[in-house]
Amino acid sequence: MAGGNWTRVEEFILMSFSSLPTEIQLLLFLTFLIIYLVTLMGNTLIILVTLADPMLHSPMYFFLRNLSFLEIGFNLVIVPKMLGTLLAWDTTISFLGCATQMYFFFFFGGAECFLLATMAYDRYVAICSPLHYPVIMNQKTRAKLAVASWFPGFPVATVQTTWLFSFPFCGTNKVNHFFCDSPPVLRLVCADTTLFEIYAIVGTILVVMTPCLLILCSYTRIAAAILKIPSAKGKHKAFSTCSSHLLVVSLFYVSLSLTYFRPKSNNSPESKKLLSLSYTVVTPMLNPIIYSLRNNEVKNAFSRTFRKALGLRNCIP
After folding, report:
1. CB proximity list for 303: less than 8 A, separation 6 or greater
2. Cα–Cα–Cα angle for 210, 213, 217, rounded to 5 degrees
3. Cα–Cα distances in Å, from 132 out to 24, 95, 126?
4. Which of 24, 33, 72, 229 could form a disulfide linkage to 234, CB 3.0–4.6 angstroms apart?
5. What DSSP string runs through the chain?
6. What is the tens place of the pLDDT at every residue in 159-185?
7. DSSP letters along 150-172, please?
8. For residue 21, what are the CA distances in angstroms to 25, 179, 281?
């Protein structure tokens, strides 16, 4: 590199799970295909039902629609290409394709962190100020909060992706992952990346931990408010309104922390791939399931919507 002897990389090869036997890769393909279809169907149903049922036009379900839309986008960015690599259709991804995939991965990831914090704030207002909830969380406010949740993903994705792909790449073009994540792509760079790595660490901590602290503050206040409720039935009812969100937050942050904040000595590429599956593939599938099974309002809305659809169908001559 001192003399500038490097070749421009035109494409990358995603190694995915190529180290596994073909039979295991085929099994993974079928498993992830089912998960992918369930994710798309579940989140699409959440969006349609919360739009169609007037009982679900509250701020909580407005933010839930945003989360479902985000999860669909997250899956579309990662999973289709991964399925292709598992069947060895095409393990290559163009330079621009890799940069695009990384950009939207950062965008949706950053947006999800802040959207989960916004949903926690919504639950805080609903439980701690129930009488003022409709006034505080009016349509204008919830729209502003949604925009504020989505916006941080843009600068994070733009700066990190543009900076990383401005580096020269030389030698191997094999990305040891099932998608273009920053750490495995960064290993292919043949230049000093110290400043970028410092920025990436600080940026990741800010994007991940700032919403996490906001969520912790919201739930600390929620817990204090619930403990003041005299009856056990009242406490259970108050907790049930935020239990689904709390479970979703726990799944997302635990898997994210295990992937990006473990010591490097305990973080082999293969283990990181498995951990990455939890928040890129599994969690987006579980979110609509959690909100459907643990929320009576959503279950009742599904029932009303399907009965209405069947009734309309039966009326067609």
Report:
1. none
2. 140
3. 55, 51, 8
4. 229
5. -TT-------EEEE-TTTTS-HHHHHHHHHHHHHHHHHHHHHHHHHHHHHHH-GGG-SHHHHHHHHHHHHHHHHHHHHHHHHHHHHTTS--EEEHHHHHHHHHHHHHHHHHHHHHHHHHHHHHHHHHHSTTTHHHHT-HHHHHHHHHHHHTTHHHHHHHHHHHHTTS-B-S--EESSSS--HHHHHTTB-S--HHHHHHHHHHHHHHHHHHHHHHHHHHHHHHHHHHT-SSHHHHHHHHHHHHHHHHHHHHHHHHHHHHHSS-GGG--HHHHHHHHHIIIIIHHHHHHHHHHHS-HHHHHHHHHHHHHHHHHHHH--
6. 999 999 999 988 788 999 999 999 899
7. HTTHHHHHHHHHHHHTTS-B-S-
8. 6, 20, 21
State if pTM tops 0.90. no
Residue 4's φ and ψ, nearest 5 degrees, are 80, 20
In sequence order, the β-bridge partners of residue 189 are 169
Polymer length in residues for the chain: 317
Structure-token pair, residue 293 = 């099974």
Region 136-140 average pLDDT: 93
Neighbours of 120 (CB within 10 A): 24
Residues 110 and 188: their CA atoms lie apart, in Å, by 24
Q: Which of 15-24, 136-145, 270-279 has the lowest mean pLDDT?
A: 270-279
Question: If you average pLDDT over residues 190-195, what whole number do you get?
Answer: 91
Q: Are 264 and 255 in contact, with CB atoms under 8 Å apart? A: no
Cα of 306 vs its chain's centroid, Å: 28
Enter the tokens of residue 170. Answer: 């030389």
Residue type, 17: F
